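Think of the structure tokens as a kind of shorthand, similar to the way a musician reads notation: each symbol stands for something richer, in this case the local conformation of the backbone. In the example below we present two proteins back to back. Begin with the first one, reading the sequence and then the tokens, and try to describe in your own words what changes along the chain.
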Amino acid sequence: MNITASKLNKYLMFKLPAAYFTGVRTKELNANSCIVTVKHRWVNQNPFKSMFWAVQGMAAELTTGALVMKKINDSGKKVSMLVASNNASFTKKATGRITFTCNEGHKIDDTITKAIETGEGQTVWLNSKGINAEGIEVSTFNFQWTLKVKS
């Protein structure tokens, strides 16, 4: 099955309803990058009238996770994936539409290849940056994914 942005959005509706109902949407997915947007609304705001950090985290994680899913699918192997660790920093209030982007597909290729060659679990750190409509970075997230070929 080919993983596309529209298929990911349908997946969110049924498998990750919190992300779907807070407005997280995949806009673009290709071999090297994933772009996800979310708009600040009443349903996803914190008491300070900006986007709740966890909503930003869902959008950021989706950029990295969707890329990992696509790369696993393209490999033709059965590979398990799990977030082992993450960290984030916030530099500006998130209001308006925030666009999260991960451009690190090449790192996943290398990690999957190594996992297939060695048969051992591998880890990869992937970064996603949240940028507002003015082009200002509001947050950055890092996710450590573990990948292991299923036997």
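Once you have a description of the first chain, move to the second and do the same.
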Amino acid sequence: MSDTKVYLLDGGSLVIDGFHVFWNRGPGGEVRFPCYGVLVDHPEGKFLYDTGFDKEHVEKVLPFEKPLQTDAQTVPGALKLAGFRPEDVTHVINSHYHFDHCGGNKYLTSAKTLCHKTELEACRSPEPFEQLGYSDRAFDIADDIYTPNYELLEGQVEIAKGICLIETPGHTAGHYSMLVELKGRRPMLFTGDACYTRQNMDTDCISSFHLDPVASLNSMHQLRTLAEEHDAELFYSHDAESYEEYLKAPGYYE
């Protein structure tokens, strides 16, 4: 845990309807939300959790999500801002393989990819209603992961001292959230898409892009319990209001 730093890498933003953010509750209308990656600079390696979206792919396949992304918000640009290069990243962890969480994997060809076994299976054979979510397959070439080395995981896994992946299925079949312990502050619990926003958590309202709504709600409750047990601060995946308060790279948490 000593000498560990956590950088939040701004990846731009997308738009979805409010009824998707707050399932069957709304209010409706366009909601612009952030996408970001989490770089954990750790004595055992440099671990990148989620890599955002690929703007070219979104403009081609999902233009209605109105992507905004500068060169500085791509994975190479965001890493440069934090003082790193893509080849410095030793491990890529995707919370899941929806297009807005894996779009930058293609830049990280020197890294080992850590992924949930069930999630890799799901993205290769999605349910019909999941097709758009899993539409960016640039990381998955000829039935092999884009990054040349990968490891399939299951269950709760400590991938390095103080970095724990927590199974939170429902949004997708093999979704992982991440808990990071630091020396000088409260632990950081990254929800991934198991919980989009603080309002989702506070109102027990899941988001609509899910495989299993009951499992989604259970996973959100699990995250709340974990945060209480570890006195952890929750960092939400797509919460524009909370994101304004987060420290972004080149700043870092330690």
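Compare your description with these statements about the second chain. The longest helix spans residues 213-230.
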